[in-house]
Amino acid sequence: MSGLPRRLSALEAIAEAARLRPYQRLAAELGCPLEELLAETDREQARIARLRAQGLSVQQILERQAAEHGITVAQLERECEDIERRYF
Predict the structure, then answer these.
(1) Rg for the chain, CA atoms, rounded
(2) pLDDT tens digits for 12-59?
(3) For the chain, how many structural domains are there in total?
(4) DSSP-assigned states of every residue in 33-85
(5) Residue 21: which of 34, 7, 11, 30 has the closest Cα?
(6) Can you give the pLDDT at residue 87?
(7) Pick from 67, 65, 63: which is nearest to 47 by CA?
(8) How far is it, in rounded angstroms, from Cα 76 to Cα 21?
(9) Residue ranges making up the domain that contains 80
(10) Is-contact 52 61, C-beta < 8 A?
(11) What pLDDT is recorded for position 1?
(12) CB-based contacts of 46: which residues, under 8 Å, 6+ apart?
């Protein structure tokens, strides 16, 4: 049984590396530290969760995000789809 915990740890490390790989590529392309990108991603996910808990719809959140960035919802959706396609 002593090998099982070691194998589990190895599998967990592999899974974490696979999870981080797209973020590493994106951070490298943006020229920002990985930790900064991950922190920003976490903040945005928490913000979206708070807005959803307040009762905002996905459409309302998209509208708010687009307005904050000075773009249309369609542009925001295209940019998100592009990032998802290229990195995830």
Answers:
(1) 17
(2) 999 999 999 999 999 999 999 999 999 999 999 999 999 999 999 999
(3) 1
(4) -HHHHHHHHHHHHHHHHHHHHTT--HHHHHHHHHHHHTS-HHHHHHHHHHHHH
(5) 34
(6) 92
(7) 65
(8) 23
(9) 3-87
(10) yes
(11) 55
(12) none
